[in-house]
Amino acid sequence: MRLTSPLLLLILALGTASAQTTRIRLLAANTTSGNQQSYEAPGIRIFQGLDPDIVMINEFNVGGNTPAEINAFVANTFGAGFQHFREAGAQIPNGVISRWPILQAGEWDDPEVSNRDFAYARIDIPGPTDLWAISVHFLTSGSSARNAEAQSLLGFINANIPPGDFVTLGGDFNTGSRTEAAVTTLSGYFVTAAPYPADQNGNTNTNANRNDPYDWVLADAQLDPLETPVIIGSFTFSNGLVFDSRLFAQGELNASFSPVLAGDSGASNMQHMAVVRDFLVPSGQENDFSVAPTEIAFGTVDAAAGPFTDSSVQITVASPFTLSSVDFAGSHPGEFSLVAPALPALLSSSAALTFRWTPPANNGVPRSVSASFTAQGTPSNFTVTLTGATQLPGGTGEPLDASGHRIEQSGSALSLTLPPGTSIAAGGLLVIGRNATRAQFEAFWGPLPADVVYLNGTAITGGNGFPLINGDEQFRILNASLSAVDPLTGSLPVPAMASDRGYRRDATGATAFTEYTAPNTNADPGEFTGTRDQTGRLILTEMSDATGTGNFNFEFVEMLYDAAEPPPAMQGLSLR
User: Fold this and answer.
1) Torsion, Cα of 47, 53, 55, 61 (10° steps)
2) How confident is the model at residue 29, as a pLDDT?
3) What is each CA distance from 216 to 251, 271, 447, 540, in whole angstroms?
4) Residue 305 DSSP one-character state
5) Burial of 206 by CB count in 10 Å (0-12 exposed, 13-18 middle, 19+ buried)?
6) Per residue in 92-113, pLDDT tens?
7) How far apart are CA 512 and CA 540, in angstroms?
8) Could you tell me the sign of the dihedral formed by the alpha carbons of 517, 519, 523, 525, in that order?
9) What is the Cα–Cα distance from 376 to 358, expressed in whole angstroms?
10) Which of 61, 320, 397, 527 is the most buried (most CB within 10 A)?
11) pTM for this entry
């Protein structure tokens, strides 16, 4: 058996009271044009002229929306190193584009609309604190719907974002005033009070006619005090910028906002102005101290076997440092402890801090955590942040409690939440038929192996059942916390399905699917013969329409709990 051993990345970022800062430019943009609600030359030039670091983008459509087109748009517009997340299965998707690494991304359900959700990304900005960027596009239908969206969004934020991280919210709120109910609701987490970004004439409104405050870039109470004036070329905007190219002479644009053209903000069907805010975040003072190594590799092991071997981080300080205490914080601070040195301790020019991560047993299911420890003493303090830590799959061979996992279907905008007690064996399969008992399903497709879990979609969802395959459907899986499971980031793994077709995955780690015709003869629900990559996740493996008059009740979607077999023993920790 092949054991996979991904790296546990411990990205160590340091900061002091006299820390250096990094300017971060945040941009909210719904600057599509033309008839397809997509990004064309005017919107692209605006992006390039404003030179943002992080973009909360609405209506994230480019050309035919193929991965190649989206990737090329990001690279050519912002830079080769930029990363992005674009919600899948949405008519006018939201997304986040970032100069810095995206550690985690996904979408939360917008309860008021079916053609987009709330997109988020956790970004490893310079310094010890991560930034969560959330892109939203609220409804135009009325203030009560927008307030319901705001309330739902705050629920997701409070449930998923660790205290201490920076949070920004941007996008097209479609708000008619700065005191609308949705804004009041959001003020429970974000700073929504004046002063607001404005153009050079002091106008803070952002719609095409410049008479309504549709678009926002908000910051939470930790990030907002770090705001700094936006300086672009010869222009300075004290409280942020509402960018309207029509207010500049072409010579001014050439000098400060190239390659923007004066008419770009007035392009056909461009209904919004871009909004920019800049912030100075602490990013550490390199000469105070350094840390090594920056990566630590753990073997494939479930925590039920015991704690991981202790890990040492080498601290090199510019002058002697008396370490008096270490305080852990983060999403799971109690799982980390300082093993050595005994405190108080005098650190000379180079000393080792040894810590231990002791996660609880979780049956081999991947688990993300974050933690940080602040070393307190004299003459100054520093913070070491451990981020992106992952308990690796491989596991104990225990079944997966899939209760609360949600399978989402685009196109018809359906979803099915797995009921309590849904347990799938390690390496086992789950099949959901649209509207048939197990006996009826097996009479149509053939017997299912005894260990396959079968569910009747209609018995769970009611209505027309689940799945509902009529053409162009795609599927994905979220866990009970509504974090993405398959895929972890990016587009839906299943291609847009055609009627009377089926699709199967050739490997659990693959993004591509193989299409087959005549599903009545070629589909094989309850069987998976592809490569198992031991991802430790619930993976979509096959979807099929059912041909023949009245046979729609036998449409199905199949999933595999892609868990590895139990490892023979706990692997040791090695330093790289």
Assistant:
1) 50
2) 97
3) 28, 14, 56, 37
4) G
5) buried
6) 999 999 999 999 999 999 999 9
7) 11
8) positive
9) 23
10) 61
11) 0.52
